[in-house]
Amino acid sequence: MDNLLQIKKLSKKFHLLFSLLLIVIPLFDAAYWALINVLPETLINVNVSSTHLSPNPLPIKLQLAGFAVSLLPLSALIYGLINIRKLFSFYREGVIFSFEHVCIFKKTSKALVLWVFSSIFYESAKSLIFSFENPPGQRIVSVGLGSPEITTLMVAGIVFVIAWVMDEGRVIAEEQQLTV
Q: Which of 45, 131, 134, 152 is deepest in the core (most CB within 10 A)?
């Protein structure tokens, strides 16, 4: 089996995977906030210490606020997934290198950066939402930047440089085609 045929076959599977993720991830996010009062505490307090969690059920207004804030990182993630899915649709069709690929890589890099900063904001807002029903003086706003965020920013930078190199390669290839 030649390489292009294998790339097409594998890309078809990744295209399907990213199509499913575009459906499942928003549903998971909506279900998380809708079912927040019935979910086990171990699922709720990811990245938030359980001592800061409100012992009472989360009122609907805080559930809606949490869901609204979660749309920020969710939007960045969906934007990135749409671009990656588009990349695999090109590979699935056998289109390996084009200007659109460069644009997709740049957009994916931007989506990663947006996702990191919106996730930091989301986690901070979530800590406030979970402790909002606590007595005054026991409410918490936790702002954090850890190695996952730094790693994601590094990956975003690498993807951007790869896109830049691909664009330069594309320009050189086009100039060579025009040279007699």
A: 131
Amino acid of residue 117: F
- DSSP per-residue letters across 90-123: HHHTT--S-HHHHHHHHHHHHHHHHHHHHHHHHH
CA atoms of 88 and 9, how far apart (whole Å): 10
Contact 127, 52 (CB under 8 A): yes
Q: Torsion over CA of 144, 24, 103 and 8, rounded to 10 degrees?
A: 130
| Mutual angle of helices 147-178 and 99-131, in 10-degree steps | 170
Please say if the pLDDT value at position 50 is more than 50: no
At residue 131, the pLDDT reads 86
Tell me the pLDDT band of 51, cut-offs 50, 70 and 90: very low
Distances (CA, A) of 7 to 1, 11, 16, 76, 170: 10, 6, 14, 27, 21
Distant-in-sequence, close-in-space partners of 21: CB < 8 Å, separation ≥ 6? 81
119 or 180: which carries more pLDDT confidence? 119
How many angstroms separate the CA atoms of 81 and 149, rounded? 18
CA dist., res. 22 & res. 30, Å (int): 13
